[in-house]
Specification:
The two termini are 50 Å apart. The protein folds into 2 domains: 10-254, no CATH class; 260-530, Nitrilase/N-carbamoyl-D-aminoacid amidohydrolase (4-Layer Sandwich), CATH 3.60.110. Helix 4 (80-110) packs across helix 6 (129-153), helix 6 packs across helix 7 and helix 9 (202-219) packs across helix 15. Helix content is 43%, strand content 15%. It is of the alpha/beta class and 533 residues long.
Length: 533
């Protein structure tokens, strides 16, 4: 009989685990889908980690049932050979189905906000909304399906199963983040985002290491119905995990107080331009004037005078026109800047090509005289947003990209630094480039800080911008570098190299933010390890 220890939850756990094991067919798929969707509550911006102690053990129990229930489905149990073949077929189908259903629910709920982008120009793109919010989660769910299938093949017993499934899911999550263009969005390690201290070990093994630990500790909840382990031992082990991780993280935070550059003050401008207005011709002057007004605005008495900032920073593709040196707009911008100040902004850059003009999604740096000093071209472009994969096939189906630009953006070469006089070298990162762990800075020339320019206006006031913010924060901890994030509609924020938030502009707010730049830390162990790859 299972060890019942004195625990009021034991009868419920036994009953629920039995239900998960014995459910079959469409009921099992629906159950796995719902549990996957509930798991999203553990992620930012909600952060209910405890939800994983219900959903992830249920995944283990449903995989347990991939064998037991399949035997009951066999039509001819007297034939041992046929029985064994059927057992394998049913187990494979069930394990794959459980993993796919769980993953589909997880990504469907977690990425439902992408549908907002198809409502920006609803007349042209709304018909694609159902396809986008189902096909992308379905594709990503295949990685969870394969992870569960592989883990079920090596199923070996309760404690071993927890390690096997944790490892398999982590490996396939890594593959999800790197195969084709890669989309490492909503890795389970972000469930630790509820505590800055709990995130600190990312400086050792990065987000994929945190993801493994998130799987391991949450899947360990399945051991609460173990016949061999006392419940109190499982609870103590889980408690010790949180105590050690939190304690080590809190110690790291206390030993590394935030320090700042004395001679650099940034002004971040969050203009809050709605995506529906961004490319309308009649809005060009309105948008330009808003940036000029915010950039030159005097701050309150307890902050800075406008002449004191050294770096004026605007978000991705801030204004809806090309920034040409000597233009009236650039002359007006120069009047705002102090003698030694710089403008750093996201902008669409045009370059003459052999057959046609090329367009880049870029970061440009200008001096106070309006001269362009440096550029960075985005190298990791967004499929369907900045270029159209399988162009000929998809265009015949009437599918085009969402950007308002003829043709596609051209890609830059690789991560690089921007060097400006009297400015610590920084790594410019545009939009979703920030989600790729270990791929955002020049490993041979480590920068002093990371600048992430983005335009999250596509996704309105949904959970998407908050998930994006959490990923940016994680890069600061991994790299040991301060991170400055400026978003058109928010959330804009500044993090120190341990991921502590220094300041923030809330989502949907039109405002400016003046702040000094935090100092970096020495290279983290994560940085040293990734330098070899």
């Amino acid at each position: 009989m299972p060890n019942r220890d004195s625990n009021i939850f034991q009868p419920f756990l036994l009953s629920w685990s039995s239900y998960c094991i014995t459910s079959w067919g469409w009921r099992k798929f629906v159950l796995s889908f719902c549990l996957g969707g509930l798991s999203v509550l553990a992620l930012p911006p909600i952060g209910w980690f405890f939800m994983l102690f219900f959903t992830m053990p249920s995944l283990v129990w449903m995989l347990d049932g991939a064998f037991e229930t399949s035997l009951a489905q066999q039509s001819n149990p007297k034939k041992i050979g046929f029985k064994r073949i059927l057992s394998n077929i049913y187990a494979i189908r069930s394990a794959f189905g459980v993993g796919f259903g769980f993953g589909f629910g997880y990504f469907f709920v977690g990425l439902l906000w992408i549908g907002e982008a198809f409502l920006v120009d609803a007349q042209q793109y709304v018909y694609l909304l159902p396809v986008a919010v189902t096909l992308l989660p379905a594709f990503l769910a295949l990685f969870w399906a394969m992870a569960c299938l592989v883990a079920r093949y090596f199923w070996a017993g309760q404690i071993k199963n927890v390690f096997i499934l944790s490892l398999s899911l982590t490996v396939f999550e890594y593959l999800r983040g790197n195969i084709l263009t890669g989309l490492p969005w909503n890795l389970l390690g972000f469930a630790f985002d509820f505590s800055t201290a709990m995130l600190q070990s990312a400086s050792i093994w990065g987000i994929y290491g945190l993801t493994f630990w998130a799987f391991l500790v949450s899947l360990s909840g399945s051991l609460l119905v173990s016949e061999r382990l006392k419940i109190r031992y499982v609870i103590i082990a889980i408690g010790c995990f949180f105590a050690v991780f939190w304690g080590a993280g809190a110690t790291r935070l206390s030993l590394n107080p935030t320090q700042y550059h004395d001679d650099m003050v940034m002004r971040l401008v969050q203009a809050n331009i709605a995506q529906t207005d961004k490319w309308r011709p009649e809005m060009r002057s309105v948008i330009a004037n808003r940036y000029l007004e915010l950039s030159g605005r005097k701050t309150s008495a307890d902050t800075l005078d406008k002449a004191e900032f050294t770096h004026l920073i605007w978000p991705e593709s801030a204004v809806p026109f090309l920034l040409n040196v000597g233009s009236g707009f650039m002359r007006e911008t120069s009047r705002i800047l102090g003698d030694d100040a710089y403008l750093i902004t996201g902008a669409i850059r045009k370059q003459k090509g052999v057959e046609k003009d090329l367009f880049f999604n870029s970061v440009l740096a200008f001096d106070a005289d309006g001269n362009r000093l440096a550029k960075y071209d985005k190298h990791h472009l967004v499929p369907f947003g900045e270029y159209l994969p399988f162009k000929r096939l998809l265009k015949t189906l009437g599918i085009n990209k969402l950007i308002s630009l003829d043709g596609s953006f051209s890609a830059g070469i690789q991560p690089t630094n921007i060097y400006l006089k009297n400015t610590p070298a920084f790594a410019p990162v545009i939009c979703f480039e920030i989600i790729f762990s270990g791929q955002i800075v020049d490993r041979k020339n480590r920068p002093e800080w990371i600048l992430n320019l983005t335009n999250d206006a596509w996704f309105g006031e949904t959970i998407g911008p908050y998930q994006h913010l959490a990923q940016a924060r994680m890069r600061a901890i991994e790299e040991g570098l301060p991170l400055v994030r400026i978003a058109n509609t928010g959330v804009s924020a500044i993090f120190d190299p341990l991921g502590r938030e220094i300041a923030q502009l809330k989502l949907g707010k039109t405002a400016i933010l003046d702040s000094p730049l935090p100092l970096k830390l020495e290279p983290t162990l994560f940085v040293k390890m990734t330098a070899f790859f």
